[in-house]
Write a structure and sequence with these properties.
single chain; 7 strands; globular; disordered C terminus
Length: 160
């Protein structure tokens, strides 16, 4: 599997928003930033199971994510902390600079209070531990699904 770029630019309105009365809400667009193709595919499959109409785009590096964001604005970003030579800690402020209102959910197997705190300080909306196996990904998507809505920032998931 290769990481798939966005097919076309997305409007800045959040998923489900109506541009004008009578407009049909558009499906959400989710950008997955993870260098592990197996993980990216698990997230994609889980998104399509939980959110069948969602457009899921993946980026394997900070540079790929930057290119994707230069073409369109997703409704949600799922970000791994370890991206080969890059770190998700550095990607968060870069994303915030170009897409300040897009929620970032960090997904990582490096789960600690300090990791959660750093992610929150850098601008992530939530932190979710990376599932141990493929069966855990649909539950992950269900937990982060509320972040697709335009809502105030909540750091509740950072603290146990």
């Amino acid at each position: 599997m290769t990481h798939r770029p966005l097919a076309h630019p997305r409007p800045l309105a959040p998923a489900g928003a109506q541009a004008h009365p009578g407009a049909v809400p558009r499906p959400p667009c989710i950008l997955v930033i993870d260098d592990e193709l197996v993980v990216a595919e698990r997230v994609r499959a889980a998104c399509h199971e939980v959110l069948p109409d969602a457009q899921v785009v993946s980026a394997g590096s900070a540079a790929d994510a930057s290119r994707a964001l230069s073409h369109s604005v997703p409704d949600l970003i799922i970000l791994d902390l370890v991206l080969g030579n890059d770190t998700g800690y550095d990607v968060i402020p870069e994303v915030r600079a170009v897409a300040p209102h897009v929620p970032i959910v960090v997904m990582s197997s490096h789960d600690s209070e300090s990791t959660r705190y750093i992610c929150a300080q850098r601008g992530a909306k939530a932190f979710e531990p990376k599932p141990a196996d493929a069966a855990g990904y649909p539950d992950l998507i269900r937990r982060i699904q509320p972040h697709l809505r335009a809502s105030p920032v909540s750091l509740g998931r950072f603290h146990r």
